[in-house]
Amino acid sequence: MITKHGYSLVNLRADYFRAFVGFIICFSPYVFGAEAVGGVLILLGCAALFVIYGLRTSFRHIARIELDEHNIAMKIIRYRAIPWNKLSELSLSYFTTWRSGGDGWMQLRLKGAGHTFRLESNLSDFEQIVRRAVSAAIMNKLELSSTTLRNIDALNIRIPENGQAA
Amino acid sequence: MLNYFARRILTMLLTLLVVSALVFVIIQLPEGDYLTSYIAELESQGEAVDPQKIAYLKEEFGLDKPIWLQYLSWIGGVVQGDFGRSIEFDLPVTDVIGEVFLFSLILNFSIIVFIYIVAFPIGVYSATHQYSWGDHGLTFVGFIGLATPNFLLALILMFLARKYFGTSIGGLVDPSFENQPWTFDKILSLLEHLIVPVVVIGTSGTAGMIRRLRANLLDELHKQYVVTARAKGLPEGKLLLKYPLRMALNPFIADIGNLLPQVISGAVIVAVIMDLPTTGPVILDALRSQDMFLAGSFLLFVSLLTVVGMFISDLLLAVLDPRIRLEGTRE
What we know:
The structure holds 2 protein chains of 2 kinds.
Chain A: E1 3-6, H1 9-31, H2 39-62, E2 64-67, E3 71-75, E4 79-83, E5 87-95, E6 105-112, E7 115-120, H3 126-139, H4 146-154
Antiparallel strand pairs in A: 1-2, 2-3, 3-4, 5-6, 6-7
Helix pairs in contact in A: 1-2
Chain B: H1 2-28, H2 34-44, H3 51-60, H4 67-79, E1 85-86, E2 91-92, H5 93-128, H6 133-147, H7 150-165, H8 184-221, H9 224-231, H10 236-242, H11 244-248, H12 250-254, H13 256-265, H14 268-273, H15 279-288, H16 292-320, E3 327-328
Antiparallel strand pairs in B: 1-2
């Protein structure tokens, strides 16, 4: 059975907003006639960063992820697929900008068959995808880092002896 | 990672924007402005106030414009490296700060190095020799350092340096070298004059750092992995250096966020007492006289150093401590 997943606008609007606000703040001095020297140059560099961030967000917005028994596939502009039996790397990371460690997001990185997918936790059914990917990683006998194992555990995904993540 | 950097940079930018606006508004909160004080000063001296000159100064410094317009004009210049013109000195802010900025950097950087060089070995010794005579003695000295007011220590050390070494009182170089080009003799004079302020200002910081390093290292040394390593016969020196010390270093690294602004603005009172040509007294005067461009630029620069310092310390902590990762675990 094929399941389809994507990033909804509701989940991405904060990222769009950050990209927009960041770009406006960084680019406005230049628009208002400031010379491209000193701090303005640094701000222009940051503006470029926010443009890339905005583009990346829009790519994620149009991305369609499909899961079935054999593959995980992602279509942004072109179709790319990683067969589960070709999965060669899996890492699950947690990012936060707070020293307290809260209010962060997760990123699942899958590598195999010449492709690398990076999926973030605001993707619909993220946990289901992680569960399926972890099962494939166990089947392929991949070595998972301790950080990844702890994050899998944080999602309440158990890794039993028989290799099926539950 | 892009997501992380974008979020952090946006937070830093918004923080700086808010701080700059707050600084600008707060400096102007007291009634009147620099010109009001200037007129009052002239009148108290019995001098005539030329209304045309006042009107010219108001227009020149934009004091007749609404505050939001003054702010936009100032912040627009700041991003281009133009920090405005000091009203009190009638000079560009960069010229006013000029050499005192360099002296501040040298002095405060020396203080930070002093704190780290002194605090580190003492902190490690105190933790590894807990409750020994050495630990008690150094703890006592540390508490004395924490409890003694800096200005008192400054006065005593200045007197002793003058009496026994003939060091001139006040300043960071001998008066004969002031406003002279940099020579080897001037550098020697600077080093001679640095000793007292570095010891005075560094003492309290050293004492605090020793206490924190000692407490953190003791915490680590009592953890199970240390007991296990010791039971397996790992040499004591290697055991200490491998993990506990690295973990205990976290406060040193986390302090970078606070240290960077201190490099510029630290120890104002001591600087005033010792007549040090650093930025502290300049900012104090600027705040008192409501020289908003000078004070505002200075405070904004300190805020910039704080947020950049925090960012650097976060990155360094992630490198130093294997338990802390930008890409870590969700607890």
